[in-house]
Write a structure and sequence with these properties.
The protein starts with a helix and ends in a 5-residue tail after the last helix. Helix 7 packs antiparallel against helix 8. The chain is built from ten helices and no strands. It has about 190 residues and is mainly alpha-helical.
Length: about 190
C-alpha cells in the first residue's frame, strides 16, 4: 500500500516518508520475537538478520526526503528508524542524533506519546533521572508502555519498589499475552546498579 501511494503521489514528501518508515520498520520484523515467541528489545535483536535490502531502500528514501527539506512527522519518524538501522550494534547507536530528531518530531507533533519516546532517547543520552522527570509530567496512565518505561527508568536509580509497582501497572494495562509475559520477565529481573 505504501508503494502504491508513493507511485500515485511521488512528489508528496510525507508519502515518501511513510514508505521509508514502513520499509525500515519491516526490515527488523524477523528479529522482534525470539524463536520461543518472546518479545526482544531492540538491543537484543540479531542485526545480522535485518533485511539489508529494505534498509537500503528506506534509507535512500530518507536521504531524498532530507534533500527536499520539507520535514513532516512521517519523514522524521523514518529518519529515527534510519539511525537505528544504520547502527551496526545497539551500543553504536547515535542517541544524540535520535534525540535531536525527537526534538523535531515533538515540535511537529506535540503529543504525550512522542514526548514519552523522546524521554527514552534522553535517558540514553543523559541518564534515567532527567528522563524520569519528563515522563512523570505526562498524562498517559492508561498506556501500558508509559508504566513500562517508568519502570525501566526507576530501576537503575535504585527505586526498586516503585519500579515493581510500575511494572505491575503496565502488566495490568495490556491484554496481549506476549506483552504481559515480556513485562513479567522484566519485572522479575534483578535491580540494575
Amino acid at each position: 500500500l505504501g508503494r502504491l501511494l508513493a507511485e500515485l503521489m511521488p512528489d508528496e514528501p510525507e508519502v515518501m516518508g511513510l514508505l521509508a518508515l514502513i520499509l525500515l520498520v519491516v526490515s527488523r520484523r524477523a528479529t522482534r520475537v525470539s524463536p520461543d515467541g518472546d518479545l526482544l528489545r531492540l538491543a537484543e535483536q540479531d542485526r545480522s538478520l535485518w533485511d539489508r535490502g529494505l534498509i537500503a531502500e528506506g534509507q535512500a528514501i530518507v536521504g531524498a526526503c532530507l534533500r527536499r527539506n520539507q520535514p513532516g512527522p512521517y519523514q522524521v519518524q523514518a529518519a529515527i528508524q534510519a539511525v537505528h538501522t544504520d547502527a551496526p550494534s545497539a551500543a553504536a547507536t547515535d542517541w544524540g542524533q535520535i534525540l535531536q530528531l525527537y526534538d523535531q518530531l515533538l515540535a511537529l507533533t506535540p503529543t504525550p506519546v512522542v514526548a514519552l519516546n523522546r524521554a527514552v532517547a534522553l535517558a540514553e543520552v543523559a541518564g534515567p533521572e532527567p528522563a524520569l522527570v519528563l515522563v512523570d509530567e505526562l498524562d498517559l496512565d492508561s498506556f501500558y508502555l508509559f508504566h513500562a518505561i517508568r519502570a525501566d527508568l526507576l530501576r537503575p536509580l535504585g527505586r526498586t519498589e516503585e519500579a515493581t509497582a510500575a511494572y505491575d501497572k503496565a502488566i495490568a494495562r495490556t491484554d496481549n499475552a506476549v506483552e504481559r509475559a515480556f513485562l513479567q520477565q522484566a519485572r522479575s529481573q534483578p535491580p540494575h546498579r
